[in-house]
Amino acid sequence: MKWTDSEDLGIALDEKFPDVDPLTLRFTDLRQRVLELDGFSDEPHASNEPKLEAIQMAWYEERKGRLGE
Q: Which domains are assigned to the chain?
């Protein structure tokens, strides 16, 4: 997965961190969690605020769907 794979990253983050509310994370913490995912293979320095925001929103939508909110 790459930084631009926001939907796949959102799913993977929700699976790995099911009890975390993505809207409470700072982007620096979100970035670190993405780097820890199995299957993530992009350059760490290639992240930026718009990419992290897209990942955060994809994770939020995945979590919202899982919780039936």
A: 6-67 (1.10.10.600)
